[in-house]
Protein 1
Amino acid sequence: MHHVPFRPGRWMAALALSLLCAANSAAAAGTSPYRVVGYATGWEPAQTKDVGKIDTLIFAFAQFKDGRVSLDDKHAAGLQKLLALKADNPKLKVDVSVGGWTTGGFSEAASTAEGRQLFADTAAHMLSSQHADGLDVDWEYPGHHESGIKSSPDDKANFTLLLKAVRDSLDRIGKTDGKHYTLSVAIADGPFVSDIDIPAINPLLDWFNLMTYDFVNANTPTTGHHTGLHASPLIQGDGRTTDRAAQQFLAAGVPPQKLLIGAAMYGREFADVKPEHDGLYQTYGHFQDMVPWPVLKQHFIDKQGYVRHWDKVAQAPWLWNAKTRSFITYDDPQSMAAKAAYVKAEHLGGIMYWEQTTDPTDELLDAIWKGLSR
């Protein structure tokens, strides 16, 4: 789910050996077959030095009201800050996402041909008028109402029809503008794609942004790795993992190069956790909070009683505070490197992440970029 915002291991020694090679390959992000795509609710000027490591920034979010996609003045100004980065980095693409967790209206808009056309045409006009490069549709989720939005048994067919209308509108305005507007989706996995016809939407999309994070949250019965790569020995049944998500889409016929797995630049904290296995995959009293990466580094990782652990099977870290029985699951440079290695091993398209401003020093971005560039 996409939210409005809010200790490296031994791999670094090996990474240092390749640092010279990476430094001499300034254009690696542009020449690598793998892509780095980042969602951005804003932009920190200090991060501009590393913008060459990003292939596509996706501005979050455009407004979706009364069936129309638009940008108010505040959000348009935010998008223009991202677009201004293209002056020094002409290879950078800047897309716009519409939707997000708790954003409703999709089911209603997609239910009629007129509603689908209005969505598609207003989205295409918004991109063209703002000089953006593509649209990312973030309906969470067709056929589901966990986020409090309306859903319908017809969402499965209508989602395909909605994306078809958008693709047609983007192509139509693209001919006038002399460019190809990209179309992507932010999409979950497992039971949350039960009402999505993956083979049907595949030809309409340039790529899939797999939201392989938030696997454990306030609505799940246990703690766990919220963005784990593989299944921990402690995971129950068909619990969600990044690998299982990727394999689900590959099995549905999506070409591997169109799949971008997700990485999280924030953690999730659980309180009153049962202490077995240092809190991993245990029941808990309540979900505490989302914790941005800088806060994790400054206040939590191996500090104040929070001890870092590493799951060698899942390729994921977690923090456990035995005194307070608090548990935090998160991504760090070591797990980012593992995800990059997985992308290369499976010949996937790359890595996307949520969210740019929660990695202000680009430490996690750098780990992703180096992992994919080597």
Note: Residues 155-177 form the longest helix (23 residues).
Protein 2
Amino acid sequence: MQQQHDMSATPTAFSEADSFTLRTALDALGGVRGLDALDLACGHGGTVRLLASSGARRTVGVDSCPERIRRARERHTGATASVEYVVADAAGMPQLGPFDLATAVYLFNHAPDREALHAMFRSIRANLRPGGRLLAIVPNAGAFPRVDWSPYGVRILDRVPDGDAPLLKAQYVTEPPVHFEYREWTHSDFAEGAVEAGFSTVGWQPGRPPPADAVRDEAYWTAYRAWPVSSLMTCTA
């Protein structure tokens, strides 16, 4: 649930659900062919590669960590001039667009305070053309301690009141476990930031698991559908 951790080698169930949710949303928009696309918190470039391979005219990945950007560039085999990677903080991102589409997978939950959260939305809005879309995967608030996401690859360990949003301490259920922290912003917090930034519409869809298979059958995904790790936030500029 943080862009710092590369899940591509051994994707957990919740990350596969996130990928399926995003791909389904892109398909519902009619795909990305011919669009200029921006991916925030791009990490090692998984979404950038998806957008580029799906026909985006120009794709730019942005991340605040130089090492992640370096690895993303290395992994983008067959890179062309239409794919770029930029080291920048989403809250203070320079003008890179305009873009038709922006994607952000677990970006906003790392805003340390409300000011930074709103600055992220403003930076993205400033880089979108009128009518452009933002698709963001955001974690759902309120699960801890009632919901156990361990079967799907992530475990919340503690919730600490702190500043504008509680700090959640968590771990990926991997071998060995990987510990991380993020902020428990609510959907209303995200919507407030989007509206303040000038987005004209804000919508929500629950995270969607991929089709059942022999490893993860329908019964496995039933509990996930009841309280998924994430939701899809959709905004129109």
Note: The beta strands are 36-40, 58-63, 83-87, 99-105, 128-139, 154-160, 167-172, 178-183, 201-206, 230-236.
